Amino acid sequence: MVLVVGWLLAGCASTIAPAEPGGIAVTGTGRVASRPDTVAVELGAEARAARLADATAEVARTMGAVVAALKALGVPDADVRTTSYAVDPVAEPRQPGDPGVRIAGYRASNLVQVRSRDVEGVGRLVDAAVRAGANVVREVRFTVDDGSGAEAQARALAMQDAAAKARAVAAAAGVRLGRLLAVTESAPLRPVARMSLATAPGPIEPGQLETTVSLDARYAIER
């Protein structure tokens, strides 16, 4: 009986206690700065009028002039995309005792996103649109069109960083670093720089964008 119970308890203990993964676990990070090669600007026109037809007609005329100005700068049709078209009633301020809402007019708006590879000339693009009648400029967004090269470089740097950290940990612990056992990579942080023209007047500088790759690596300990 004693032998049987002891064998059962030993079996339970080996089943419940999980095996601790051995080795040295570290996190490596790699960062690569890239010059943006694509810029996107959201701009458009907004108009208010007592009649809906007048508001939409004014927006249509303005946007026709804006698109023509963009094409004159060499922006192709494929790089001009409508992102928003809206028509909203404008209510009069309510007075005490008013039975309901009174419509004073209508507001129409048309926004487009303009993409260009001339990142240095984004200021000229915005200026041309404003001169043509655009009265809404919401955002300038700089990106790298193909970030695979920067990601590959950042990944290699992250592996080098992880290996260096693992060697340092092994040296501090007085053990010999063994082979790489496992690597898990987090989703790369792809660079995007956004600028609001309402809060950042003056020259528009693309600057540098940083791609970051982080990964968790586990190395064996040689015995």
Structure description:
This protein is an alpha+beta fold and 223 residues long. The protein has helices spanning 2-16, 52-72, 122-131, 148-173, and strands at 24-34, 38-49, 80-91, 103-116, 136-143, 176-185, 192-195, 209-222. The strands form 2 sheets. The chain has a 5-stranded antiparallel sheet with strand order 3-4-2-5-7. Strands 1-8-6 form a 3-stranded antiparallel sheet.
Question: What are the defining features of this structure?
Answer:
4 helices; about 220 residues; Translation Initiation Factor IF3; five-stranded antiparallel sheet; disordered N terminus; elongated; alpha+beta; Alpha-Beta Plaits; three-stranded antiparallel sheet
**Could you tell me how far the N terminus lies from the C terminus, measured between alpha carbons in angstroms?**
41 Å
Count of distinct structural domains: 2
Mean pLDDT: 83
Order of helices and strands: HEEHEEHEHEEE
Instruction: Kindly name the structural category.
Output: alpha+beta
Radius of gyration: 31 Å
Count of DSSP-assigned helices: 4
CATH architecture of the largest domain: 2-Layer Sandwich
Q: Which sheet architecture does the biggest sheet show?
A: 5 strands, antiparallel
Share of residues in strands: 35-45%
Q: Might you state the CATH topology name of the largest domain?
A: Alpha-Beta Plaits
Shape: elongated
Say how many strands there are: 8
Strand order of the largest sheet: 3-4-2-5-7
Uncertain segments are 1-20
CATH homology group of the largest domain: Protein of unknown function (DUF541), domain 2
Tell me, what is the CATH class of the largest domain?
Alpha Beta
The percent of residues in helical segments reads 25-40%
